[in-house]
Specification:
The chain is built from nine helices and nine strands. It has 274 residues and is α/β, with parallel strands linked by helices.
Length: 274
């Protein structure tokens, strides 16, 4: 593991690191905010959306002040493998670099590198546990858009690993959404049954369970009707007796202006449960 940068912020330290990932077969980068004046802080994972890296939320998410106050470490991974040896479609923002969809690819040539599910669930937490004095028995997870999708599926499939889960404008049913179904086909193959393990609505319908979820969604989000469709999550959660707190926010879009507005709410939500 190599430290790329480190800066003081709100009494804590915002750092960026890189390391060689075994599951993604490339160098990966991630950001870590370490809060001040607390030993063994709990860990909050933030998963970013399409086209993003760790930089977007680190520079625009405005999480550090509240994380410092609450004594929470915040870890922001990248959204995909990257590098000259990683297969990609450079002109397609919905696939390849910046669009790993937090799944494990099974189709060549993508299966060698695109294993973000295992990276977030296993490899990166193990690296963090070995190199930071964080309390890895207290982890929570949240994210935005594609990252909201990632947070939901990872929490649903591994409920014992996370104390809480929330999302900003998540892609709740990527197997039927226009901006994700083609990526699923390339990563996993044409059999839609194989996609369901990476689809929140399908997982809940099949019996996967997480007791409580917070979702904020902007009503002026241009992706609302075709890509996000939170009402699908609302319906399946109601049928499965999952306590979903869906807050439709008037006037807000899909941007980091939206995310940063409600970031403190999400941090406090996790702090109360972690």
């Amino acid at each position: 593991m190599k430290k790329l940068s480190s800066s003081f912020s709100f009494g804590g330290i915002q750092s960026v690191y890189s390391h060689e990932s075994a599951v993604n077969n490339c160098e990966m980068t991630f950001a870590v905010f370490t809060p001040p004046n607390i030993k063994n802080p709990p860990v909050l994972w933030y998963l970013s959306g399409l086209t993003c890296s760790h930089l977007n939320v680190m520079e625009k998410g405005e999480y550090r002040k509240k994380a410092a106050e609450l004594g929470m470490a915040v870890i922001c991974p990248d959204t995909s493998p990257r590098g000259s040896n990683v297969p990609d479609e450079k002109d397609n923002w919905q696939f390849g670099s910046g669009a790993g969809f937090y799944l494990n690819a099974t189709k060549e040539p993508y299966d060698k590198n695109y294993n973000m599910y295992s990276y977030i669930k296993d490899e990166l937490p193990e690296l963090i546990g070995e190199n930071f004095d964080f309390d890895m028995s207290r982890q929570s997870i949240f994210g935005h858009s594609m990252g909201g999708h990632g947070a939901l599926i990872i929490a649903l499939r591994n409920p014992k690993n996370y104390k809480s889960c929330s999302a900003f404008a998540p892609i709740v049913e990527p197997s039927t959404a226009s901006w994700s179904s083609e990526a699923f086909k390339k990563y996993i193959g044409p059999n839609k049954k194989d996609w369901e393990m990476y689809d929140s609505v399908a997982l809940i319908r099949e019996g996967f369970y997480f007791p409580e979820i917070l979702v904020d969604q902007g009503e002026s989000d241009s992706f609302l009707d075709e890509g996000l469709r939170p009402w699908l999550l609302e319906e399946v959660c109601r049928k499965s007796q999952i306590n979903l707190k869906l807050r439709m926010q008037s006037g807000y879009d899909h941007s980091y202006f939206f995310i940063s507005t409600f970031m403190s709410d999400h941090l406090m939500w996790h702090k109360e449960r972690i």
